[in-house]
Amino acid sequence: MITATTETRKFEAEVAQVLHLVTHSLYSHKEIFLRELVSNASDACDKLRFESIAQPQWLSDDSELRIDISVDKEARTLSVHDNGIGMSRDELIANLGTIASSGTRRYLESLAAESKADSRLIGQFGVGFYSAFVVADKVTVVSRRAGSDAAEGVRWESDGKGEYTLDTLDVARRGTTVVLHLKEDESEFLEAWKVRSLVSRYSEHIGFPIRMPKEVDGKPGDEWEVVNSASALWTRPKNELADTDYQNFYKSLSHDFSDALAWTHNRVEGNQNFTSLLFVPAKAPFDFMNGREERKGLKLYIRRVFIMDASEQLLPAYLRFVRGVVDSDDLPLNVSREILQQNRQVERIKGACTKRVLDLLDKLAKDEADKYATFWNAFGGVLKEGIAEDAGNRERIAKLLRFASTHSEGTAPSVSLDDYIGRMQVGQDVIWYITADSHAAAKGSPQLESLRAKGVEVLLMSDRIDEWMAGYLTEYAGKKLRHVGKGEIELDAADAEAHKASEEAASGVVAKLKELLGERVSDVKVSRRLTESPSCLVLDEYDMALHLRRVLKQSGHEMPDSAPVLEINPAHALLKRFEAEADPERSKDLALLLLEQAQVAEGAQLDDPAAFVQRLNRILLDTPTA
Predict the structure, then answer these.
(1) Does residue 164 contact residue 133 with C-beta atoms inside 8 Å?
(2) What pTM, to 2 d.p., does this model score?
(3) Is the pLDDT higher at 342 or at 182?
(4) Which three-class secondary structure state does DSSP give residue 324?
(5) Which residues contact 578 (CB under 8 A, 6 or more apart)?
């Protein structure tokens, strides 16, 4: 509906869904609305300070950037005002009427399907503003963009039920005022002491003064007073800061409800001067694994002026879980993303930040194993990307990796490569591992049998990324890493002599299997791996694991045809029966069964499961009963 003065619009579907989730599911976290509104106001001041480098006249009449909070008990309103960049009519529509983020609809649908809302929704798509509707039944936003005329002010208003109105009106000063018309049962937020305590808890280290009216005889007066420290936390000496200061700053910065797992705060001086404050979260946000395309979380400041979110320029992709700030004294204020990509100073900052994070993780791993286990469960799969992407730090990253193994209990990845080396047998010079598409498939693989029988430990890798990562991690601490299911396994002199005799004795069985299986396999060999199972599949040393081939093929990648090697255990009863079988049809059934059960043990989906079942039934029913 459009009139001469007012335009009414409907929210986009995603916004309406966000509003529903926020108002119905964040009741236990409702006080964070103030943190979100103050954070938005701080961003607006940051943007104006940056824009004023090119447009200094925008600050000429009101140069002290600030955030004002006031309450009106009679009107039952709480107002947050900033004299930052402000918004035009189109910007209000874009920022408050839509959520322009890929994946939003999918995430909201998944929340609805699970019948639970996640507090991590706030902050993920810039939807922190909507948390106001948890405590307010109507929200009014009045804004005027810096550089525009007073007559170009805009008022946005909504009750959060599907529509909002827009009015054009005269606004005397630039900036934005958000007015919350509080619900009847939210009177606690009309108490100045309550609001001050929330500012102290969530927004103490916002880099701009947060002011409230000074109390006179228990009532707000005309004089304003600053109620936060109004200094950037990272600029303060570490010995002045408590853990609670860091944690509150982290929550304000990251929109996370949980405490950070760990942090590192450093000042570098010399040829280059910069400060970094880097946090490792305790858990991953819901969309974290899709975050390689647009990485956020590391803010770049230059001489306390916020420039941009520069995660891509200041940290490698495999450390994209890190949140924090970098404040440089040396970079130009008019720096752009293109300049950052080519700037040597930025490369040095990136190298220093990477080192700081790896140092922090190394310290966690050594001194706080439980915390490191929490980190690994949340971000271990991402850290593994660094093995391929950061050759210069490969050894350091490898030291931080954790795996399950045949010597560890349960499925938890708790074994480091150093742990493995410390348990290696006398004379062992290889770190053995196996990759599979599940922990059970890795642990139960017949390829492990001979090594397990000798007490040799094998690392069990079942993450999808492991096979790719292992292609780059070929050596650690002077020890080669080898896949137990690829290439030949070396034997000592006594075992080699026994194996040679076994090969000669089974030559007829091998030839018969090769003939019956044909092109289904590239070769048939007597196994050095098997002690209990009748057969297994083996690849050449540099071939891609079969489970990864299947994943890539299902993803639409063209994969060249290749057949594995079938290794057999001639001492197994099934091979003895195959050797003695004279009937051609039963011989073929047995040969195919040996191949198919090797495929099943490897985790493959059989090409014709029904034929496998029929074949198995024929073999079982043909077996004489005792």
Answers:
(1) no
(2) 0.72
(3) 182
(4) strand
(5) 509, 512, 513, 587, 590, 591, 594
